Amino acid sequence: MNISQHSKSRGLTLVEVVIATSIILVSVLALLSVHSLYLRTALSNTDKAKATYLAEESLEVVRFWRDSSWNNKLAPIALNTAYGVVINGNAWATSTNQWVGSFERSITLSAVYRNASGDIVSSGGTLDTNTRLVLSQVSWAKGGATTTKSLSTYL
Q1: pLDDT tens for residues 48-104?
Q2: What is the predicted pLDDT for the residue at 6?
Q3: CB under 8 Å, gap of 24 or more: what pairs does 92-100 form?
Q4: What is the C-alpha separation between 148 and 100, in angstroms, rounded?
Q5: Of the four listed, 29, 34, 69, 110, which is most buried by Cβ atoms within 10 Å?
Q6: Is residue 9 predicted with pLDDT exceeding 80?
Q7: Is the pLDDT of residue 134 over 80?
Q8: What is the DSSP letter of 96?
Q9: Helices assigned H by DSSP within 1-155
Q10: Listed residue (56, 94, 99) closest to 75, CA to CA
Q11: Model pTM?
């Protein structure tokens, strides 16, 4: 009786070792997959944040042009045409070059029409020469697809 009790308490069997190793392996693989998903999401959000900053910067440039001189800065810009926005020396200017690193940035100004009540309308109405719709778009390629971030405002 003493011999059989002694043989039961000598250590772990091969089955127990395999089960314990499997549990640890599954836990480590789950943690690695969660970490990989986190990294992919973080990198994707970095591109989105950069694109948003570039789009907001474009809108701020157009607001600066409006505040500094509507007639000299905004009036000459052709409507419904995409332009790049670049820093030229110490001043902002429009450009045909729309690339900022791996991002393509453009602004487009459009005419605005108002109804008899003075509200902005999408069709009909009277042309408001003192107001423009500004569309700022930033596009970038990722994983074989193009993603675009757009912001718009009225000036």
Answers
A1: 899 999 999 999 999 999 998 888 888 888 999 999 998 888 888 888 878 988 999
A2: 54
A3: 92/61, 92/64, 92/65, 100/54
A4: 14
A5: 110
A6: no
A7: yes
A8: S
A9: 2-8, 14-69
A10: 94
A11: 0.72
* Tokens 């772990």, residue located: 12
Overall residue count recorded for the chain in this entry: 155
Q: At 49, is the secondary structure helix, strand, or coil?
A: helix
3 state SS of 85: strand
Token couple for 120: 């902005």
Q: Name the token pair of 126.
A: 């009277």
In the chain, the amino acid numbered 15 is V
Tokens of 136: 């700022």
Residue 151 has pLDDT above 90, yes or no: yes
What average pLDDT score do residues 123-145 get? 91
Residues above pLDDT 70, as percent of the chain: 93
The residues, any chain, with a CB within 8 Å of residue 46's CB and separated by 6 or more, are: none
- What burial letters (b/e) apply to 93-131, b meaning 16+ CB within 10 Å? ebeeebebeebbbbbbbeebbeeeeeeeeeeebeeeeee
